[in-house]
Write a structure and sequence with these properties.
Chain lengths: 330, 739
């Protein structure tokens, strides 16, 4: 680890000022950033600890939704009564991630900004455009079993590893941020980026901006939902493919469908046109299969991860079936 | 009455020390002026170091030295001076030996600084320029380069029996398949660590993570040319090793090198990532051909293994001995060939060869049972061997049939339906599988010392190790029972090279070897006590012969007249407040040579496989084990449970991924290298089957460290087949292979 200076901010404004300094980074739970610093993948010269800022509450908004403070812990969020009763999909997604110990440390804001788990990103002795722009991508020709099949570029095929974010995408959350130029709200679909030719940028958050909260709209799809996570072991493993599925049903007719995929792209993957195929249709396996096909349109494997295309289709069908039957998880 | 400590489930005597943190592991010792070393590893797999620039690192305040091949002190250059007790034939790797890079992550520099943090930072500042050469790390692509080593590390594969090729051709039912086992890394909880403390005059005290302190002692002594008595190696606790501590690893070499040169104490601890920079279980491809008659009698087995090794040592292991050990078949041909690659030399890992070979053989046997449409257990029973056909010797004991019987009953095997995909619950296909395995019960020469204090407290010691297996506890039980003392009055000490000689802790031979020596040394003390008692005035024992006296409850008494007794403390008064001592060495009895001795296991497994998503859950494991006398059923059970959990890992999860373009292991942390977690482990049962064996060693105990793992992975693979109808012959069985 390289030497760095350290400061604790008590409020958003000073935090924003501190982080505007050369080489500065926020640190919240530290469960991702510290690991990456130890292996020299990230080397901020100034750390701004934001855990003293009072941004850890979870409360209802005037619009009838809820607001998750950026510093609320993943565990506290998942077990919060408002979340458990009104947004159980989010609760399940969070609990499918990491381990109990990690969730006790990890914050909601940090979860959004956790970095990819691509093997090569983690090893400074290998070329990686995300870590070192222009050095090349080792994964495209290399071991890419865990990596993306959708929205990839010739520069990077990394995935965003979060589970929580998959649920937030399906629930159409917004991310509240504050920077030197004031506050703004970013729709979840625009928060993370595709790699394109700037794979070193994971999100559209500006370097001087802090996440203050995540807001959820009123509809939490609390009746018909599923978070299905497929992985190589039953816990403490990232998703090969995950699906957050939520349905509004009238009888067996779908009024609204939300589907987001994790583990398949540089951001939680949503295809609203494909979701729309279900609107007004019967909740049947055949219809779910049609949606699954549409969702994976344009998917491309890189050898080791070819299987994800078929797996994602099957997972979508299974998740929608479970959501219909009110089965929350696999 | 005599207390039967052996055979009674006994808590670990070191349990409290471990959970309270009082037990110290290699990296936790203190030394005055301790410096910290951090290793720099190579970025490439093959080539030369063109330039290594340490100036930026050396400029930092508090950095004492950066050792590289350019400035390192001299050390012996002879191969034999670098060969340790577990070294395969060849030329061992010498850290910082030259500018040559032989494998990726090779240690190429050691930064020594006042603190670990500083050393770690300085290590980032070491600039290296390489001249790369093309490397080869792909076993499959280089099978045409396979060779038979001039010398084998383990016994060479046995010569052919009968005519396997012809018998195969004539067989009514034939199977020919290849099976692949990937590379695995040991990943014990405790990372490898050493502290070398230099003393005025050149003597060294070394704390090392190792499975045998005397192996490290001898290695340091010969490699650096230091008299053996000037090196003391200490290792009281080891946080798991699984074979990774059989050979002294490079952190030991580097800490000693730095300590001597700087005349200080130097600690080197490897990081988790660096735990992937030395030995591993080798990637192995096995080709099996099995022929059987229509009635299900085995006619022929050929078993050929192709395994990776480094370019500098010929590592091999017992992959192909299992057809001869496990089955009654008279036409058998086996071979073990190596492919030299630009990797570090593979290293013994729990049941080396057994895990790999049994997986392939037991899956193939299952496949054959299906070709014959015969219950896989019945097929095994039909080809049950009463003899070890490799050696053509009877077994000293073999209760494998009883393992089958008790295991099958507990599991409910009789209710199994033969047809794959015949059991289902919702989306879950259910499969039942069976496999069996064995591990040789060996005894090595070992010594022990016993000291009995005037207060009647016994201390026994031997330079062995406790890698988590329960050595402290088992030796205490054996000594307490032999001497007839309460457990609390007995302590066992280990892990110090000045103690009586002991073999490496490995091969499941510690209980049989060291335990036999402990028993013997206690018997020696008893003879001494009898002599002392006979010298007492009006001694009631004056006419007694050693075989006529017994020891219990802190007393010596005449076996046929227990009322005639003396407290040990009374006898010890003869020694005027001084303790009495004995030392003894126990060698295997010659009679053992006429027999083969193996521990055996039979494992029954239930899996659930999602019919659409391919996820596998191991819902039940029953393992029945016959391993002679079980000295401590509690720690013994833990060994088998650990083997079961590891078997889940072998079958479904473990795999060190090698990127052949980079020639580098890429899954080098515990997020990417998957081991089973609690959520993967469900019902796990262990049955110990009674087995009496008077030949294997004086304790009648065989060994449990390795037999618990071998049969689990193939039983899981066979259960997955039963669930899905799909044969996966390449481990691990991840969900993509079942889609
Ligand atoms: C072994 C392991 C397994 C895991 N498994 C899973 C899993 O299965 N699923 C899953 O979803 N996650 C998993 N995680 C990831 C875990 O969820 C994240 O590490 C965690 O959510 C990050 O939160 P943090 O508060 O610790 O972030 P930190 O590590 O403190 O920060 C992460 C990044 O976010 C930035 N940051 C933090 N807070 C803010 C803010 N308010 N505004 C602006 N920037 C900010 C930091 O500067 C930093 O760049 C795993 C992690 C580990 C170590
Ligand atoms: S996929 Fe992205 S993160 Fe992985 S090596 Fe390529 S550029 Fe780096």
């Amino acid at each position: 680890m390289r030497p760095f200076t350290f400061t604790q901010s008590q409020d958003v404004d000073t935090a924003v000022q501190e982080v505007s300094k050369e080489g500065a980074k926020f640190i919240a739970g530290g469960t991702n950033l510290l690991d990456l610093m130890k292996i020299d993948v990230m080397s901020p010269s100034h750390l701004v600890d934001i855990t003293q800022i009072a941004l850890d509450t979870i409360e209802e908004t005037e619009a009838g939704g809820i607001r998750l403070g950026a510093l609320a812990k993943n565990a506290d969020t998942a077990y919060h009564e408002l979340v458990e009763t009104r947004y159980p999909l989010l609760s399940h997604a969070i609990l499918a991630g990491a381990t109990a110990q990690l969730r006790n440390m990890a914050t909601d804001g940090g979860n959004l900004l956790q970095r990819t788990r691509c093997y090569y990103f983690y090893d400074t002795h290998t070329p990686c455009n995300k870590r070192e722009p222009g050095s090349g991508c080792s994964a495209i020709q290399g071991y890419n079993r865990d990596l993306a099949i959708l929205g990839t570029s010739e520069h990077c095929i990394a995935t965003h590893p979060s589970d929580m974010c998959v649920a937030l995408a399906a629930l159409e959350a917004t991310v509240q941020v504050t920077g030197k130029n004031g506050a703004r709200s970013i729709p979840f679909a625009n928060f993370h980026r595709l790699p394109g030719d700037t794979p070193h940028l994971d999100s559209n958050l500006q370097p001087d901006e802090i996440i203050t909260a995540i807001e959820l709209p009123a509809n939490g799809f609390a009746t018909h939902y599923t978070y299905l996570k497929l992985r190589d072991r039953a816990s403490y493993a990232f998703a090969l493919v995950s699906v957050a599925a939520a349905l509004e049903l009238e009888g067996n007719t779908v009024k609204e469908a939300r589907i987001a995929l994790g583990g398949v792209a540089h951001k939680p993957w949503r295809v609203p046109q494909a979701e729309a195929l279900l609107h007004g249709q019967q909740a049947t396996r055949e219809n779910f299969q049609k949606v699954a096909e549409a969702y994976l349109e344009g998917a491309k494997g890189f050898g080791h991860n070819d299987f994800k295309i078929e797996l994602a289709k099957r997972a979508i069908v299974r998740a929608l079936e479970q959501a219909t039957k009110k089965e929350a998880t696999a | 009455m005599k207390e039967n400590y052996t055979g009674t489930p006994t808590n670990r005597v070191d349990g409290k020390a471990k959970v309270t943190g009082e037990a110290k592991y290699a990296a936790e010792f203190e030394a005055p002026g301790l410096l910290h070393g951090v290793v720099v590893n190579s970025a490439i797999a093959k080539g030369k170091i063109k330039r290594i620039d340490t100036s930026a690192a050396l400029q930092l305040d508090g950095v004492h030295q950066v050792f590289t091949h350019e400035n390192r002190p001299g050390y012996s250059w002879f191969d034999k001076h670098h060969q340790d007790e577990d070294a395969p034939p060849g030329s061992p790797f010498r850290p910082l030996g030259s500018d040559e890079i032989k494998f990726s992550m090779q240690p190429i520099a050691l930064v020594v600084a006042d603190t670990f943090e500083l050393a770690r930072y300085a290590a980032l500042l070491v600039q290296v320029e390489y001249e790369t050469e093309p490397h080869e790390t792909n076993l499959e692509a280089n099978l045409d380069q396979a060779y038979k080593p001039k010398k084998y590390k383990s016994p060479p594969p046995s010569s052919p029996r009968g005519d396997a090729a012809q018998a195969f051709e004539r067989s009514a039912v034939k199977l020919e398949e290849a099976y692949a086992h990937p590379a695995h890394h040991h990943n014990p909880m405790e990372m490898h660590a050493s502290i070398a403390i230099w003393h005025e005059g050149g003597k060294l005290t070394v704390y090392d993570k190792i499975q045998g302190v005397q192996n490290s002692q001898k290695y340091i002594s010969t490699a650096f040319g230091i008299p053996q008595e000037d090196v003391q190696v200490i290792s009281p606790y080891v946080g798991g090793a699984f074979g990774s501590g059989l050979r002294p690893q490079y952190q030991l070499f580097l800490s000693v090198l730095a300590a001597r040169e700087l005349k200080r104490a130097v600690k080197v601890v490897l990081t988790r990532q660096q735990m992937f920079s030395f030995g591993h279980r080798p990637h192995t491809i096995q080709k099996l051909a099995i022929g059987a008659s229509e009635e299900g009698k085995l006619q022929a087995i050929t078993h050929h293994a192709f395994a990776e090794t480094s370019r500098f040592e010929d590592y091999n292991e017992d992959v192909v001995i299992w057809p001869g050990v496990l089955y009654d078949c008279h036409n058998v041909e086996v071979s073990h060939q190596l492919v030299g690659l630009d990797v570090y030399t593979p290293l013994d890992m729990r049941a080396p060869g057994g895990t790999t070979g049994t997986f392939a053989l037991e899956c193939a046997i299952d496949e054959m049972a299906y070709k014959l449409n015969m219950d896989p257990l019945e097929f095994r029973l039909k080809n049950y061997s009463e003899k070890d056909l490799n050696e053509d010797k009877p077994h000293s004991s073999k209760e494998l049939k009883e393992c089958y019987r008790q295991g099958a009953e507990k599991f409910g095997w009789a209710n199994r339906m033969m047809e794959p995909r015949s059991m289902k619950e919702g989306h879950q296909l259910i499969g039942w599988g069976v496999a069996h395995g064995a591990w040789e019960a060996q005894q090595q020469e070992a010594s022990a010392k016993a000291v009995l204090s005037p207060e009647g407290k016994l201390k026994v010691s031997s330079a062995t190790a406790d890698i988590g297996t329960g050595t402290y506890t088992v030796m205490t039980q054996i000594a307490a029972e032999t001497m007839g003392l309460p457990l609390e009055d007995v302590t066992f000490e280990l892990g110090d090279s000045t103690m009586p000689k002991s073999p490496l802790e490995g091969g499941s031979w510690t209980v049989s070897s060291v335990g036999s020596a402990v028993k013997l040394v206690c018997e020696k003390l008893q003879e001494e006590l009898l002599k002392m008692a006979q010298n007492m005035k009006n001694s009631p024992f004056s006419e007694a012969k050693p075989e006529e006296v017994s020891f219990a409850n802190g007393q010596m008494f005449l076996t046929h007249a227990p009322a005639t007794s003396l407290p040990l403390t009374a006898i010890l008064e003869q020694h005027e407040g001084e303790p009495i001592e004995a030392e003894a060495s126990q060698k295997p009895d010659k009679e053992q040579k006429n027999y083969s001795s193996y521990s055996h296991s039979a494992t029954f497994v239930e899996v659930q496989v999602d019919e659409e998503l391919g996820t596998v859950k191991v819902t039940r494991i029953v393992t029945a084990v016959a391993a002679g006398r079980i000295i401590n059923p509690k720690t013994g059970r833990s060994q088998i449970l650990g083997g079961s959990v590891w078997g889940i890992g072998v079958a479904l999860e473990e795999h060190t991924v090698l990127d052949h373009q980079l020639g580098r292991f890429m899954t080098h942390d515990l997020d990417k290298y998957h081991l089973p977690v609690n959520a993967d482990v469900h019902e796990t049962d262990v049955i110990f089957v009674e087995e009496k064996d008077d030949i294997v060693n004086p304790l009648g105990a065989k060994g449990l460290g390795e037999v618990g793992i071998v049969s689990v992975a193939p039983a899981i693979c066979n259960a997955v087949f039963h669930a899905t109808g799909k044969r996966i012959r390449e481990l691990p069985i991840t969900l993509d292979k079942l889609l």
